[in-house]
Specification:
With 555 residues, the protein is an alpha/beta fold. The protein is 43% helix and 10% strand. Helix 4 packs across helix 5. The longest helix is centred in the middle third of the chain and has 21 residues, at 271-291. The protein is globular, with a radius of gyration of 24 Å.
Length: 555
């Protein structure tokens, strides 16, 4: 009887991936989007409602269901469940309106999601490698079904956003980061793997939570952790031959330590150090265009001297060098202030990376006093201390320069050092402002200001796409500087006139693909690619951009 027996299965399917198993594959599932012929050939008849629907109809149903959710956290949970069942539809929805969905999938909603991660947990995503797996990490990685993993986003949960050590609850970050690789830059989601590296946690609330999903122990000292991380990094090289490791939200000293340890040995980067520094440089490029000045002529003061502060300082140093300063000249223009006050030469509590930006100066634990003494033209907050930039601070900056640059980069929202209303209001509208979270437009003295969001999602997905496409052997700071310049160039003169220093989120895909093209070109120029250079880098890379559309699974 014709059609009663399937004699051939498409080559692209693994044996048995049909029927109910196919419907349970988020990568391939189309729900009622399977055609009648696909249902017949793939053993789906009787397993689906009769109607054959388009992805647009599915999209409308998602919007209707999302509209019934009372909070962004509920929308976050719903969207992640959708990603678990129908990946194509998930990205079709998210990429249709990134300005709306990015704050739900990532900052600021991700902060609440991580705080409650053990309680909203539904099903496993990615992999969980704990200290108990020591000696067997490659065996654990071998359990991952896709052998062509191209990017791993790995966190230890040690410094999640501005929330500190959340342990296994921090797994929401690598999951969300890799979703943004696709949503913001079009990186194909297949081959992206989130991993939580579980050392334990210092968070007593998590350890005492009966629903906590992580290892219930305090974090061991670094000398016990190093061999474990070494084993993980080299197990990745053995199991996934062409993979880049994206380190994310490790504790500040750990983040600096492991980037220095591995960056010259394997393809890896740390987004909190290099990505944060890159997006800050992008904002400063446009701030200088607004102020009609040069970055090399500025004096920068950081409020916060952890991994984000040091990473920013190093990237700004590199940017200043490209404008003609020497390494020492650039560092001498960058100062830092932390919980113990100004970083100066009498301090004995500094790590080597901090000491690079420690200068001769009298000790000071007063930020305003330090501002009046150092006379910075740029003030950057990476402290996670909400409202630290009070009226005295903004007024002091405004007395030094006509266009004070105020970047309040800490997140979530309540950790921002100041709001745009405060920065613009206390500076009489003269401040050039950006935050680490998105604030609404602000009207000061009849003028509308558009506060920009200096968020790494403008940078790391584009870097990831370039590395993914070129099979890059290493990731360099120069790639992040190029990404910063490209991001800054995506902002128009009209947008800068309204105070906007970063591209509109509504156009994030196009701006990041352009950035990925520029970074890919640099990778080829520096002979860091693992493949031959195509004749047209732009067309070649755009041909790989992920498109969230239902595709035929037969023929």
């Amino acid at each position: 009887m014709q059609g009663a027996k399937v004699t051939e299965k498409p080559d692209r399917f693994e044996d048995g991936l049909r029927g109910k198993t196919l419907l349970e594959s988020p990568e391939l599932n189309k729900d009622t989007g399977f055609t009648l012929e696909e249902r017949r050939v793939l053993g789906l008849e009787g397993l689906l409602p009769t109607a054959v629907e388009t992805i647009d109809q599915h999209h409308q149903r998602v919007l209707q269901q999302l509209g019934q959710k009372p909070t962004d956290l509920e929308r976050y949970i719903y969207l992640n469940q959708l990603a678990d069942t129908n990946e194509t539809l998930f990205y079709n929805v998210v990429m249709s309106n990134p300005a709306y969905y990015l704050p739900i999938l990532y900052d600021p909603t991700i902060a609440e999601a991580c705080l409650k991660f053990s309680h909203i947990y539904r099903r496993p995503k990615g992999m969980y490698i704990s200290m108990k797996d020591r000696g067997h990490i490659q065996e654990r990685l071998a359990n991952w079904p896709d052998k062509n993993v191209r990017v791993i986003c790995a966190t230890s949960g040690g410094r999640i956003l501005g929330l500190g050590d959340l342990g296994a609850n921090g797994m929401g970050i690598p999951i969300g980061k890799l979703q943004l690789y696709t949503a913001c830059a079009g990186v194909p989601p297949k081959g992206l793997l989130p991993i939580f590296i579980d050392f334990g946690t210092e968070n007593s609330q998590a350890l005492n939570d009966p629903l906590y999903i992580g290892l219930r122990q305090k974090r061991p000292p670094l000398d016990q952790v190093d061999p474990f991380v070494d084993e993980f990094v080299y197990a990745v090289q053995e199991e996934f031959k062409d993979c880049c490791i994206h380190f994310e939200d490790w504790r500040g000293t750990d983040a600096l330590h492991y980037l220095a340890r591995y960056r010259e040995q394997v393809c890896c980067f740390n987004d909190d150090i290099q990505g944060t520094g890159s997006i800050t440089v992008a904002g400063l490029v446009n701030a200088m265009r607004i102020a009609k000045q040069s970055l090399k002529d500025q004096t920068v003061l950081f409020f916060g001297a952890g991994s984000a502060g040091v990473g920013n300082a190093m990237m700004i140093t590199a940017a200043m060098k490209l404008e003609g300063l020497s390494e020492d000249q650039a560092r001498n223009r960058i100062w830092m202030f932390d919980i113990n006050g100004l970083l100066e030469d009498s301090r004995i509590d500094l790590i080597p990376e901090q000491r690079l930006f420690s200068h001769k100066h009298a000790p000071s634990r007063d930020l305003v006093e330090s501002i009046n003494s150092i006379r910075p033209t740029i003030l950057i907050g990476v402290s996670t201390v909400g409202k630290a930039f009070n009226q005295q601070v903004i007024r002091a900056m405004s007395e030094i320069t006509e266009r004070p640059v105020i970047f309040a980069l800490s997140n979530p929202t309540e950790r921002a050092e100041c709001t745009p209303e405060e920065a613009f209001g206390w500076s009489d509208g003269r401040a050039i402002y950006a935050a680490g979270v998105q604030f609404p437009p602000v009207q000061i003295k009849g003028k509308m200001f558009l506060p920009g969001q200096a968020n790494n999602f403008y940078i790391y997905p584009a870097i990831g796409f370039a590395v993914y496409a070129t099979h890059a052997k290493r990731v360099t700071d120069e790639m992040f500087i190029e990404a910063a310049r490209s991001t800054a160039d995506a902002v128009t003169d009209e947008q800068r006139a309204q105070g906007l220093m970063f591209p509109p989120q509504s156009n994030v895909l196009e701006s990041e693909v352009r950035t990925a093209v520029r970074v890919s070109t640099l990778i080829f120029d520096r002979n860091l690619a693992g493949i031959d250079r195509p004749s047209n880098v732009d067309a070649w890379l755009r041909s790989m951009v992920y498109k969230p559309e239902y595709k035929s699974l037969i023929g």
